[in-house]
Amino acid sequence: MENLIEIKGVRHAYKTDAGPLPVLDGLEIAVPEGGFVAVVGPSGCGKSTLTRLIAGLMKPDHGEVWLHGERVKGPRSTVGMAFQNPVLLEWRSILKNVLLPLEIVPSKLSKKEAEDRARFLLSLVGLEGFEDKRPSELSGGMRQRASLCRALIHQPEVLILDEPFGALDAFTREDLWQTMHKVKEREPFTGVLITHDLRESIFLADQVVVLSGRPAKTQYVLNVPRTRTPTLDDLYTPEAAEQLNILRHQIQVAQGRTTEDAA
Description:
Order of helices and strands: EEEHEEEHHHEHEHEEH
CATH architecture of the largest domain: 3-Layer(aba) Sandwich
Strand content: 25-35%
Helix content: 25-40%
Shape: globular
Number of helices: 7
CATH topology of the largest domain: Rossmann fold
Strand order of the largest sheet: 6-7-8-3-9-10
Structural class: alpha/beta
CATH class of the largest domain: Alpha Beta
CATH superfamily of the largest domain: P-loop containing nucleotide triphosphate hydrolases
Number of strands: 10
């Protein structure tokens, strides 16, 4: 299967008063078209920097980022992004918040087609009937669902999720995990998830990439076999326990808490 996203030997450092601060060092990641990759690693290892590079919001110091066979040189309209903070505009209804990207990104949809699509997405994530509400009238989980719809409204090829469920309670988070699978079945995309939650990574992703400590390299890649859409019960199987143990060990290696070889 063709890789839609390719991170090739990416190195990047931030300028500080004390000199360059390296965050990525020869990073290599490939995501096949339609795939869903979760990226985990120690805090501050450059996970969010990676999302900005894929979206074209910044350029690497060295190496290349490719999307669909084209080198990324600037912001891409084919990328949708959802963050931990939904950042919905209080003076706009939920429907109009979802439609906001179409006011910025060129679209072939008519006004009616755009509204119909927004209503469809809101219905898909369980927000039918809340289109005219303001963000303050919704719970945190509902606002995050609206944020997901906004990220998908322009039918992006790539959806980047930067810890979108990190601030939610455990029950709401698990409910949204299931919603994500439902959405991906109806609205196919190639996904990149940044998360600190290892259970979330194996539930949502086909592949989990563990980054080393800063400056980050690709330390380990765990493939998560899929024969069907998972249920929450699958997180309590021996297979899931083994996957989580592997990832926990790799995180310990990345944090320098074990002397064992990362491989």
